Amino acid sequence: MKLCPQSQCRKENPSIANYCMFCGAAMSEDNPDETTKLQRDLNEAGETIALLKQLLATMQGQDAINETDKKQAEITSPAHKTGKQKAETSSESSKLKSENEQLRHNINEQQAEIDRQKVELSKSNEKYNDLSVKYDSLREAFPIKITRIELCNYNDSGIIDNFGSVLHSAGMRYLAPKIHFTNHLKENKTFHFTINYYDSQGQLNYNAATNKRCTSKKDISTTDSSTTLSGWGNASGGYWKADTYTVEIWLEGVCLGSEKFTIN
Is the pTM here over 0.85, yes or no? Predict the structure, then answer.
């Protein structure tokens, strides 16, 4: 829910509302990235649906009318009353009748509001379903969203320069990227990544003898938020020269992320 920005109004509106349903004032709106926006819109649509259902469930005005009718009947039922009692009864009956009519008027207004809320509920359900389809499509196209890439230098004995350390060409053996990501997976999945390294001249590093680039097969679960991919280089050194490079992480023809790094 969010409050109307107008100081004279300040009433609660559904979170997805662009305009206040009471005074018509424009409501502010954020501009997050596409995945976060869809997730936020799904949550806000669900909140709106729950609120509208609650409004429909709390309509109890008819009970007040039934109680008033019962009281009016009790007052007018005695067969023998004095003139004063009859006048008092008539006055009380007129008062109750007026209250009853006011209650009916209020109920009619509330029913009109309920009918309007039913229309809004129907629209919210349609928007929720549309957002669900879009969100599922986005998760299918981009199962993970890379937020950060780190690199380390290692050999067969272990890590030489840990992730985030300064890299020096003299000690370079194998260069391995660690990717941090937002996970949109609905189930555990195996991925085949391609890792491209470009030098400062834009030349792609690859194995000239086999004409192959660095690839990495990884099993990622729905709870993972990072993983280290396969390394690229050699055991004896000399492969990685001092330069500024760019690493790109590709998956099924889509570049999920890139990062510049320097080897001194």
Answer: no
